Amino acid sequence: MLELKNISKKFEDFHIRDINLQVSKGDYYVVLGKSGAGKTLLLEIMAGMIIPDEGTVWLDEQNITSQRIQDRQMGLVFQDHAIFPHFTVSGNIAYPLKLRGYKGSGIDNRVKELAETMHISHLLHRYPDTLSGGEVQRTVLARTLALNPRLLLLDEPLSSLDVQYKKDLQGLLRELNRTGQTIVHVTHDYGEALALANRVGVMHQGTIVQQDAIRKVFRNPKNKFIADFVGIKNFFNAVIESIPGKKHKLARINENTAFYVLNDEIQGEVILTLEARSVLISRGKLDSTALNNFKGTISEVIPTHRGLEIIVDIGVELAVIITHESFERLGLDKGMEVWAGFKASAINIQRV
What we know:
The protein is about 25% helix and about 35% strand. The chain starts with a strand and ends with a strand. Strands 6-7-8-3-9-10 form a six-stranded mixed sheet, sandwiched between helices. It folds into two domains: about 1-230, P-loop containing nucleotide triphosphate hydrolases (Rossmann fold, 3-Layer(aba) Sandwich), CATH 3.40.50.300; about 235-350, CATH 2.40.50.100. Strand 11 and strand 12 (about 250-255) form a beta hairpin. It has helices at about 40-45, 90-100, 105-115, 135-145, 165-180, 190-195, 215-220, 225-230, 325-330, and strands spanning about 1-10, 15-25, 30, 55-60, 60-65, 75, 150-155, 180-185, 200-205, 205-215, 235-240, 250-255, 255-260, 270-275, 280, 290-305, 305-315, 315-320, 335-340, 350. About 35% of the residues are buried. The protein is of the alpha+beta class.
């Protein structure tokens, strides 16, 4: 459906470069990255607000790189809503229909249909300054969908909403996508991406560093930046070594540290990832069938929304997530010697 080929654009002192991505019909594609990565600039190139210095934009196999924004069959929702304050909710939704020459009942019927879809039928006679943030965003979405865009482009649509409104709007966006609306959504929130996307492109310093199905990217990050960004703390470069007569192999991280792993296919240089919740921690040596058991020292204790993140130095830094209750029960503290263990099967391996 949408394809960007070798897109580059220099904007003041910032540069996006060599962007290639494809969005298929029915996708919910999230462009994920930190502030300043170039996400909004990329969205504006898709929409036709900005022409790239190099590369082309294709929609349904048609080159639309120089096509006007009005002719692209795309709808764009900005982070700041851009609602008309002097129009009612009904007037805001009707605005693009009037511009395109719709009349009378054609406008009324479409406004009612969209208001029902967005669950704002009871707000049609209200003005924007009387609405909540979530109600404003639903109004803007309804207005943007009025002309049936082939592609809906969203720039941080949930960033200004409180938790409940964000949850409600996520449900609405998922439903729009399920009914066939193709969506490209820009955000800095990986939890938001995980809740909505079927495909994701991670953007860093002006380029897309990894893109694939959402679960593949989040389980198999290609580099430490992506691993850190999506919340994977245990990320290691290693080399696979065979053990004569054993079904297990060793993944050597450095001269003194190696993990037992299970994999018959991958050889040579690899990337290892390990979920922090898959690691057990104890004051004494673990009574466990797990092959990987290491004695180490707690170097950091970091509060998180999931509990406490314990960093254990075992020759490499190993992150462990435990509850506050477990931390207190075990009597743990920074500087203390502990044992950390995990199963060989818990380690995810991918080729470099």
